[in-house]
Amino acid sequence: MSDITSKIKLSQLRALVAVAEQGNFSTAALHLEISQSAVSHAIAALEEDLGVVLLARGRYGAHPTPVGERIIAHARQVLQLLETMAKEANLEKGLHGGQVRIACFRSVATHILPAVIAQFRSNFPKIAITITEHYDYINVEQDLREGHADLGFTYLPASDEFETWELLRDDYIVLLPPTAPNITQEINWQQLAAYPLIVPSTNTCSIRIRNHLKFSDCPLNVAYEVREDSTIVSMVAQGLGAAILPRLAAEPVPRGLQACTLPTPLERVIGVAVLADTLQTPAVFAFLDVLKKSEQFILKAVV
């Protein structure tokens, strides 16, 4: 082993890959749950040991140098090998240990996972579960690709790189403010046009809703795009407009607000995904089995 390789630490490689993926030191520090100074020190020490500049620092963030790109690719391979080693160890431990890493978006984490996890823990109390929440399914799929999650909840259909199972179908609904006149279950476009619209700001939902509104036969005004589901519901409660969002994201609907179906139905198909052709541990298979048998919990969440 050379003097250089004996000095390289895994924490330095993790910091390097995180900065390359996040584009700056501060976001990488948040991702790794360490201080920004610790990330800066790790990168500086690695550059000193290797004798090359790995990241070009600038006003708009940090970007890999040409040699940095090559070394980052090797660092990713090292970290992936470590993940494979951990999976092999978990295979040996079977269902008496190990962990299941789940990536999901917030409405699933709130309304679906708690009941499923409770059932799973009653059967396999020694298996650890970690949950990473995202605002959009795109980040969920990225976690699966990069080996940060064993399974994830995403929208279907998904690309062929994933093996997927449909979990549920979630309708988009309209939430009307307390001052709205009583409307039957379905609102029409003319009635909806009377309100400033509040929609989710995540790219997937925003684009999907805006494209769907083209079915309208009258002009509609999207006045607000908001990331947090709870904030959207609170804005409707304050009479700032009507919201269009998935039913799971709106639940529980506060007293005084009306939930209506759209004039033209819109739904998102939610599924569970794992990376295709990837070795999964018994713990992951066990969790998937419990998930598939938990249909009654899932149906209660969307009724």
UniProtKB/TrEMBL annotation:
Top-level taxon of the source organism: Bacteria
Gene Ontology MF terms in the entry: DNA binding; DNA-binding transcription factor activity
PROSITE patterns: HTH_LYSR
Keywords in alphabetical order: DNA-binding, Transcription, Transcription regulation
Record-linked InterPro entries: HTH-type_LysR_regulators, LysR_HTH_N, LysR_subst-bd, WH-like_DNA-bd_sf, WH_DNA-bd_sf
Pfam family, one: HTH_1
GO cellular component: cytosol
Keyword Transcription regulation: yes
Stretches assigned to the HTH lysR-type domain: 8-65
Gene3D superfamilies per UniProt: 3.40.190.290, Winged helix-like DNA-binding domain superfamily/Winged helix DNA-binding domain
Family affiliation: Belongs to the LysR transcriptional regulatory family.
The protein's name: LysR family transcriptional regulator
Species of origin: Gloeocapsopsis dulcis AAB1 = 1H9
